[in-house]
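Same chain as my last thread, 161 residues:
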Amino acid sequence: MDKIKEKLNSLRAEADAAVDRAEAAEAKNKTYEQELLQKEQEIASLLHKNGLLEQDVEKLESRIAEAKGFKDDEETHRSTAESLTRKIALLEDELDNAEKNLKETTEKLRQVDIKAEHFERQVQRVEQERDAWEKKYEEAQDKLATSKRELEELSQQLDSL
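reply #2:
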């Protein structure tokens, strides 16, 4: 009888530990989901900024074309072209940086997705373990109830003798 109680206590402790692990895994999963949402927002922001930069590049390129059409004032044309060229170079650098950031963020997002999937699998596994332990616990409860009935019946038979 004491062994059964010890076993039940042990099963309860293991079930509690499994629930704690499942809750911890769910908390981690929630954290990863929040990080994922943040990264998605960063990606959207970078894409928007990239689009704006591309528009700026197009505008500056059209201004360069206009500047080339004005050959009357060569000095003005030259300084304007140099200015626009510098702006384009700066914008191209910004575009390169934005694309680099986008690639890094996409990679981080992919890694977060992988981690989230990993933790989801762990949560599923822990839940399956918990369900198995609950089933074992219920079976043990049924066996205990059956043993008690058999003991009662045996006790009554002995008393009637």
